[in-house]
Amino acid sequence: MAEERAKLLPFYLVVDVSASMAGANIAAVNEIAPRMIDTLAQNPILTDKIRFALLDFSDEAQVRVPLCDLLTQPSLPRLETRAGTSFAAPLRLLRTEIATNVRQLKADNYSVHRPAVFFLTDGLPTDEWHDEFRNLTAYDPATRSGFPTYPNIIPFGVADADPHTLTELIHPKSGNKRMKMFMMDEGNDPSQAIRAMAEVMISSVLASGMSLAEGGSGLLLPADDLVPKGIHGYTADDDDFV
């Protein structure tokens, strides 16, 4: 009998580092990965189930932490702001990274669950990004055309992020595995909203990893009543925004 392969769930944190994120906002962003490490250290069973990568973007996108077991990462980069807010660049880079990472994990004899992307931004894109989004998310199982390892995408918006734009980034938008976005409540402080959103990300990693350890599968997001104050979650068919 073939040996059962260990299961892994890759998470990609994709962060807007455009100039408007300077100051308290980028400081809050730089707290996310260390907080994630603390959570994993307190729950070592998760290290066999979770992999984590960090990408940032402005007018270009960069891999700052390649997909890894965070507890083995010797150091973390300090993100700094740059010019521009290209959505196309990180979506393009995500497709390349996910394809490469999943192929390598399978070669290493892992069973890979559908990747999850946390996409955090504080503003509007400065480019046309829809083609890159389709390249990342479109897949037809009947014809096997498109990108079979498309990720689940959960957008997070603070400050001047547009809820209508972020709704377009949710994937999938429908079905029993539909995702949602998280938006800062009007009048809230963006840096505090980022910290609240980090709690959502960390609780999702924790719940998803624990589920895998207990034989479950896939990405879990916190229930609405467990979302921290100052932010709210919305599905693609919510009509709260005009």
UniProtKB/TrEMBL annotation:
Q: Which Gene3D superfamilies match?
A: von Willebrand factor, type A domain
Q: Which residues form the VWFA domain?
A: 10-205
**Secretion signal, residue range per the UniProt entry:** none
Matching SUPFAM superfamilies? vWA-like (SSF53300)
Q: Which InterPro entries match?
A: VWF_A (IPR002035), vWFA_dom_sf (IPR036465)
Tell me, what's a Pfam family for it? Answer: VWA_2
Q: What is this protein called?
A: Tellurium resistance protein TerY
Q: Which source organism does the UniProt entry give?
A: Virgisporangium aurantiacum
